[in-house]
Amino acid sequence: MTAPRRAPGGVRRALAGRGPVLSFEVFPPKTAQGATALWRTVRALEALRPAFVSVTYGAGGSSRDRTLALAERLVQETTLPVLGHLTAVGHSVAELRRIVGSYAQAGVLDLLVVRGDPPSDPQGPWTAHPEGVRHAAELVRLVRESGDFGIGVAAFPERHPRSRDWEEDIRHFAAKARAGADFAVTQMFFDAEDYFRLRDRLDAAGCTIPVVPAVMPATRYRQIARFAELSGAAFPEDLARRLRDAGDDAAEGHRVGVAHATALAARLLDQGAPGLHFITLNRPEATLDIHHGLGLPGPRRTLQAAAAGASPDAP
């Protein structure tokens, strides 16, 4: 099937428009049941008219084929601009070029380009493929030379865990911008001040590409504690305590997480963030509740109609 014709740089154009943009992230499901839940989520959130949907790419390329297949299906079967992920881990330059070509053939013309973490241990030593690239800026340059793509990169409100200090972290970000990045999406974080401090540092360094904050609704203590440990993000003690107190009460955990994420999102938008990127874990309920809590325009759906059931593939 031929991919629908879509102009490159859709995310870049959306971010250049008026007002903040909304977007969301999904991951490729592993099971048929997970696929059903994913498409409920996609259809529920598509009704909010987001600027784009991103499809994650597993560590070490572990979900590469499923990521490409899902991205292509989203292009074929939805109206959503699709942002595909691309990591350098485990790939030669020749393989990376083939993957970029596969995205283009599928009609995915916006890519989120990251170096990626080691597949076995995200905090372990990072080893480049002998015929690959060593830094995200090199990967950005490779994509820029491969065609007319919109290119996003990662940003870290609490500093990349492998950066020795903020000076090194901002230097690496600036290199990605110079190599051709159009925009950035942050790692998850829970304190708006971390985003604002990052923005100030980037402004001081002359980095002017828009940086979209990622919002992770924290509704389950053990899940978020694990994510925070792997990513190096700080898990605020007050939020952690309230989620621990919720225990196995899923409704209370949802209420706590949505309330915190809504307050965070409201502060980010109030202080000029260019948009919000929701990490959905293939579940729409929290994103829909936050959207409604912010009073944003768009059709309101009941959770029962929007999505029946959770994704069994969610971590």
Brief overview:
The protein is an alpha/beta fold. The protein has twelve helices and nine strands.
Would you give an account of this structure?
Helices cover 45% and strands 13% of the residues. The chain is globular, with a radius of gyration of 18 Å. By secondary structure, the protein is an alpha/beta fold. The longest helix is centred in the C-terminal third of the chain and has 21 residues, at 250-270. The protein is built from twelve helices and nine strands. It has one domain (20-118, 128-295): TIM Barrel (Alpha-Beta Barrel). A nine-stranded parallel sheet has the order 7-6-5-4-3-2-1-9-8. It has helices at 10-16, 32-46, 64-77, 93-106, 136-146, 166-179, 192-204, 221-231, 237-246, 250-270, 285-293, 303-306, and strands at 21-26, 52-55, 82-87, 110-114, 150-155, 183-186, 211-212, 214-215, 275-279.
